[in-house]
Write a structure and sequence with these properties.
This protein has 7 helices and 14 strands. The protein is of the alpha+beta class and about 280 residues long. It has a domain at about 10-60 and about 135-280. Strands 1, 4, 7, 8, 9, 10, 11 and 14 form an 8-stranded antiparallel beta sheet that branches. It has a two-stranded antiparallel sheet with strand order 2-3. Strand 12 (about 255-260) and strand 13 form a beta hairpin. The radius of gyration is 22 Å and the shape is globular.
Amino acid sequence: MSTLQNKIDFAVVMRVKHANPNGDPLNGNRPRTDYGGFGEITDVCLKRKLRDRLLESGQAIFVQSDDRKVDGETSLRNRAESVTNGLGKEPFKKAANKDATAKLACAKWYDVRAFGQVFAFASGADAGGVSIPIRGPVTIQSAFSLEPVAITSTQITKSVSGEGDGTKRGSDTMGMKHRVDGGIYRTFGSINPQLSERTGFSDADAQTLKSVLPRLFENDASSARPDGSMEVLTVVWWQHNCKAGQYSSAKVHGSLTVAADGSISIAELEGLKAEVISGF
Protein backbone atom coordinates (compact mmCIF):
# COMPACT_ATOMS: atom_id res chain seq x y z
CA MET A 1 0.00 0.00 0.00
CA SER A 2 1.50 3.35 -1.02
CA THR A 3 1.89 6.16 1.47
CA LEU A 4 0.02 9.46 1.35
CA GLN A 5 0.67 11.28 -1.92
CA ASN A 6 -0.98 14.66 -1.26
CA LYS A 7 -0.78 17.07 1.62
CA ILE A 8 -4.08 17.47 3.47
CA ASP A 9 -5.40 20.23 5.71
CA PHE A 10 -8.65 20.02 7.64
CA ALA A 11 -10.83 21.97 10.05
CA VAL A 12 -13.59 20.95 12.45
CA VAL A 13 -16.32 23.30 13.70
CA MET A 14 -18.11 22.19 16.90
CA ARG A 15 -20.99 23.37 19.07
CA VAL A 16 -21.02 22.99 22.86
CA LYS A 17 -24.27 23.48 24.76
CA HIS A 18 -24.57 22.91 28.51
CA ALA A 19 -21.56 20.62 28.69
CA ASN A 20 -18.02 20.47 30.01
CA PRO A 21 -16.05 19.75 26.83
CA ASN A 22 -12.66 19.38 28.52
CA GLY A 23 -12.24 19.72 32.27
CA ASP A 24 -9.01 20.95 33.83
CA PRO A 25 -8.02 18.61 36.73
CA LEU A 26 -5.73 21.31 38.14
CA ASN A 27 -8.66 23.75 38.36
CA GLY A 28 -11.40 21.71 39.99
CA ASN A 29 -12.35 20.17 36.61
CA ARG A 30 -13.70 23.50 35.37
CA PRO A 31 -13.92 23.76 31.57
CA ARG A 32 -10.58 24.84 30.16
CA THR A 33 -10.25 28.48 29.17
CA ASP A 34 -7.35 30.72 28.20
CA TYR A 35 -6.53 33.99 29.92
CA GLY A 36 -8.98 35.81 27.66
CA GLY A 37 -11.87 33.61 28.72
CA PHE A 38 -12.04 31.70 25.42
CA GLY A 39 -12.96 28.05 25.80
CA GLU A 40 -10.34 25.42 24.97
CA ILE A 41 -10.37 21.71 24.12
CA THR A 42 -6.79 20.45 24.10
CA ASP A 43 -5.27 18.53 21.21
CA VAL A 44 -4.70 15.62 23.61
CA CYS A 45 -8.42 15.49 24.38
CA LEU A 46 -9.32 15.59 20.69
CA LYS A 47 -6.87 12.81 19.87
CA ARG A 48 -8.35 10.69 22.68
CA LYS A 49 -11.78 11.02 21.07
CA LEU A 50 -10.33 10.24 17.66
CA ARG A 51 -8.64 7.13 19.02
CA ASP A 52 -11.93 5.97 20.55
CA ARG A 53 -13.85 6.50 17.30
CA LEU A 54 -11.11 4.73 15.32
CA LEU A 55 -11.13 1.81 17.74
CA GLU A 56 -14.92 1.52 17.35
CA SER A 57 -14.51 1.49 13.57
CA GLY A 58 -12.23 -1.55 13.79
CA GLN A 59 -8.78 0.05 13.70
CA ALA A 60 -5.99 -1.31 15.91
CA ILE A 61 -5.16 1.37 18.50
CA PHE A 62 -2.10 1.37 20.75
CA VAL A 63 -3.15 4.00 23.33
CA GLN A 64 -6.51 2.60 24.45
CA SER A 65 -8.49 4.11 27.31
CA ASP A 66 -9.11 1.82 30.30
CA ASP A 67 -12.87 1.63 29.80
CA ARG A 68 -12.61 0.79 26.08
CA LYS A 69 -9.82 -1.78 25.98
CA VAL A 70 -10.42 -4.59 23.50
CA ASP A 71 -7.31 -6.74 23.97
CA GLY A 72 -7.15 -7.26 27.73
CA GLU A 73 -3.62 -5.83 28.05
CA THR A 74 -3.03 -4.08 31.37
CA SER A 75 -0.50 -1.48 30.19
CA LEU A 76 1.06 0.07 27.12
CA ARG A 77 4.24 -1.87 27.85
CA ASN A 78 2.37 -5.18 27.86
CA ARG A 79 0.56 -4.25 24.67
CA ALA A 80 3.82 -3.40 22.94
CA GLU A 81 5.61 -6.53 24.14
CA SER A 82 2.72 -8.76 23.05
CA VAL A 83 3.63 -8.12 19.40
CA THR A 84 6.66 -9.92 17.94
CA ASN A 85 6.03 -10.68 14.25
CA GLY A 86 9.18 -12.76 13.94
CA LEU A 87 11.52 -10.21 15.55
CA GLY A 88 12.32 -12.45 18.47
CA LYS A 89 10.56 -13.04 21.74
CA GLU A 90 10.68 -9.46 23.01
CA PRO A 91 11.35 -6.97 20.18
CA PHE A 92 10.10 -3.99 22.16
CA LYS A 93 12.63 -4.59 24.93
CA LYS A 94 15.80 -4.47 22.86
CA ALA A 95 17.25 -1.28 21.43
CA ALA A 96 19.06 -3.33 18.79
CA ASN A 97 15.68 -3.88 17.14
CA LYS A 98 15.07 -0.13 16.91
CA ASP A 99 14.24 0.26 13.21
CA ALA A 100 12.38 -3.02 12.95
CA THR A 101 10.40 -2.21 16.10
CA ALA A 102 9.35 1.21 14.75
CA LYS A 103 8.26 -0.36 11.48
CA LEU A 104 6.33 -3.07 13.28
CA ALA A 105 4.57 -0.58 15.56
CA CYS A 106 3.52 1.62 12.65
CA ALA A 107 2.21 -1.36 10.70
CA LYS A 108 0.26 -2.68 13.70
CA TRP A 109 -1.36 0.40 15.22
CA TYR A 110 -3.20 3.17 13.40
CA ASP A 111 -2.58 5.82 16.05
CA VAL A 112 1.18 5.15 16.04
CA ARG A 113 1.54 5.71 12.30
CA ALA A 114 -0.85 8.68 12.46
CA PHE A 115 0.09 10.61 15.63
CA GLY A 116 3.47 9.06 16.47
CA GLN A 117 4.64 7.52 19.74
CA VAL A 118 7.72 7.16 21.93
CA PHE A 119 8.74 3.65 22.96
CA ALA A 120 11.14 3.89 25.90
CA PHE A 121 13.68 1.22 26.78
CA ALA A 122 14.94 0.77 30.32
CA SER A 123 18.66 0.96 30.96
CA GLY A 124 20.58 -2.27 30.71
CA ALA A 125 22.92 -4.28 28.54
CA ASP A 126 20.24 -5.13 25.98
CA ALA A 127 18.38 -1.85 26.07
CA GLY A 128 21.11 0.72 26.34
CA GLY A 129 18.84 3.31 27.97
CA VAL A 130 17.48 4.65 24.69
CA SER A 131 14.02 5.18 23.25
CA ILE A 132 12.38 5.00 19.85
CA PRO A 133 10.67 8.26 18.89
CA ILE A 134 8.17 7.96 16.04
CA ARG A 135 7.02 11.27 14.58
CA GLY A 136 3.54 11.01 13.11
CA PRO A 137 2.26 12.89 10.05
CA VAL A 138 -1.11 13.90 11.54
CA THR A 139 -1.16 17.02 13.69
CA ILE A 140 -4.21 18.61 15.25
CA GLN A 141 -4.43 21.89 17.15
CA SER A 142 -6.33 22.63 20.34
CA ALA A 143 -9.87 23.83 19.67
CA PHE A 144 -10.80 27.33 20.83
CA SER A 145 -14.17 29.04 21.09
CA LEU A 146 -14.94 31.96 18.81
CA GLU A 147 -16.00 34.10 21.77
CA PRO A 148 -15.36 34.04 25.54
CA VAL A 149 -17.54 31.38 27.17
CA ALA A 150 -19.84 31.65 30.16
CA ILE A 151 -19.27 28.92 32.74
CA THR A 152 -21.96 27.87 35.20
CA SER A 153 -20.93 26.07 38.40
CA THR A 154 -23.41 24.04 40.42
CA GLN A 155 -22.97 22.47 43.82
CA ILE A 156 -24.22 18.89 43.78
CA THR A 157 -25.37 16.88 46.80
CA LYS A 158 -26.93 13.52 47.48
CA SER A 159 -29.26 12.49 50.25
CA VAL A 160 -28.72 9.05 51.76
CA SER A 161 -30.44 7.06 54.49
CA GLY A 162 -28.92 7.48 57.91
CA GLU A 163 -28.16 4.79 60.43
CA GLY A 164 -30.77 2.96 62.44
CA ASP A 165 -34.22 2.25 61.06
CA GLY A 166 -33.66 4.40 57.94
CA THR A 167 -36.22 7.08 58.84
CA LYS A 168 -33.54 9.73 59.29
CA ARG A 169 -32.18 11.33 56.15
CA GLY A 170 -28.68 12.72 55.78
CA SER A 171 -27.18 15.16 53.29
CA ASP A 172 -23.78 14.39 51.86
CA THR A 173 -22.06 17.07 49.76
CA MET A 174 -20.33 15.61 46.70
CA GLY A 175 -18.75 18.68 45.16
CA MET A 176 -19.19 20.91 42.12
CA LYS A 177 -20.22 20.46 38.50
CA HIS A 178 -19.23 22.96 35.84
CA ARG A 179 -20.50 23.50 32.32
CA VAL A 180 -20.11 25.81 29.35
CA ASP A 181 -23.55 27.30 28.67
CA GLY A 182 -22.89 27.57 24.95
CA GLY A 183 -20.14 28.12 22.43
CA ILE A 184 -18.83 27.46 18.94
CA TYR A 185 -15.35 25.92 18.86
CA ARG A 186 -13.03 25.27 15.93
CA THR A 187 -9.83 23.34 15.44
CA PHE A 188 -7.42 22.80 12.55
CA GLY A 189 -5.18 19.94 11.52
CA SER A 190 -2.81 18.80 8.80
CA ILE A 191 -1.37 15.59 7.34
CA ASN A 192 2.23 15.67 6.10
CA PRO A 193 3.13 13.28 3.22
CA GLN A 194 6.87 13.43 3.95
CA LEU A 195 6.33 12.09 7.46
CA SER A 196 3.81 9.60 6.09
CA GLU A 197 6.65 7.97 4.19
CA ARG A 198 8.36 7.17 7.49
CA THR A 199 5.33 5.66 9.23
CA GLY A 200 3.46 4.14 6.29
CA PHE A 201 0.38 6.35 6.72
CA SER A 202 -1.58 5.82 3.50
CA ASP A 203 -4.31 7.47 1.46
CA ALA A 204 -6.69 4.85 2.87
CA ASP A 205 -5.67 5.90 6.40
CA ALA A 206 -6.44 9.51 5.51
CA GLN A 207 -9.89 8.50 4.29
CA THR A 208 -10.46 6.64 7.55
CA LEU A 209 -9.60 9.77 9.53
CA LYS A 210 -11.88 11.80 7.28
CA SER A 211 -14.74 9.41 7.98
CA VAL A 212 -14.47 9.62 11.80
CA LEU A 213 -14.01 13.39 12.18
CA PRO A 214 -17.75 14.12 11.67
CA ARG A 215 -18.51 11.50 14.36
CA LEU A 216 -16.06 12.87 16.93
CA PHE A 217 -18.58 12.87 19.81
CA GLU A 218 -20.47 9.69 18.93
CA ASN A 219 -20.59 7.29 21.93
CA ASP A 220 -18.81 9.93 24.03
CA ALA A 221 -21.67 10.86 26.35
CA SER A 222 -21.08 11.21 30.09
CA SER A 223 -22.45 13.13 33.05
CA ALA A 224 -20.31 16.10 31.99
CA ARG A 225 -21.24 15.75 28.30
CA PRO A 226 -24.83 14.47 27.96
CA ASP A 227 -25.99 13.13 24.62
CA GLY A 228 -26.62 16.00 22.22
CA SER A 229 -24.60 18.56 24.15
CA MET A 230 -21.51 18.16 21.95
CA GLU A 231 -21.94 18.35 18.19
CA VAL A 232 -19.69 18.47 15.15
CA LEU A 233 -21.29 20.99 12.80
CA THR A 234 -18.89 20.90 9.86
CA VAL A 235 -15.66 19.30 8.71
CA VAL A 236 -13.70 21.09 5.99
CA TRP A 237 -11.18 18.96 4.06
CA TRP A 238 -8.56 20.42 1.72
CA GLN A 239 -6.52 17.98 -0.39
CA HIS A 240 -3.58 19.57 -2.19
CA ASN A 241 -2.36 18.36 -5.59
CA CYS A 242 1.21 17.64 -4.43
CA LYS A 243 3.20 16.47 -1.41
CA ALA A 244 4.55 19.91 -0.55
CA GLY A 245 1.13 21.56 -0.74
CA GLN A 246 -0.05 24.36 -3.00
CA TYR A 247 -0.33 26.75 -0.04
CA SER A 248 0.94 26.85 3.52
CA SER A 249 -1.31 25.38 6.18
CA ALA A 250 -1.57 28.82 7.78
CA LYS A 251 -2.98 30.30 4.58
CA VAL A 252 -5.37 27.39 4.06
CA HIS A 253 -6.65 27.53 7.63
CA GLY A 254 -6.96 31.30 7.38
CA SER A 255 -9.30 30.96 4.41
CA LEU A 256 -12.01 29.61 6.74
CA THR A 257 -14.30 32.07 8.51
CA VAL A 258 -16.72 30.81 11.15
CA ALA A 259 -19.69 32.94 12.24
CA ALA A 260 -21.08 33.09 15.76
CA ASP A 261 -23.91 30.72 14.82
CA GLY A 262 -21.50 28.12 13.47
CA SER A 263 -22.06 28.82 9.78
CA ILE A 264 -18.92 29.01 7.64
CA SER A 265 -17.55 30.79 4.61
CA ILE A 266 -14.39 29.80 2.74
CA ALA A 267 -12.23 32.18 0.72
CA GLU A 268 -11.32 30.66 -2.61
CA LEU A 269 -7.73 29.57 -3.11
CA GLU A 270 -6.88 29.05 -6.77
CA GLY A 271 -6.51 25.37 -7.65
CA LEU A 272 -7.42 24.13 -4.15
CA LYS A 273 -10.95 22.92 -3.55
CA ALA A 274 -12.47 22.68 -0.08
CA GLU A 275 -14.74 19.71 0.59
CA VAL A 276 -17.41 20.55 3.18
CA ILE A 277 -18.80 17.63 5.20
CA SER A 278 -21.75 17.93 7.58
CA GLY A 279 -21.35 16.60 11.10
CA PHE A 280 -22.86 13.31 12.16
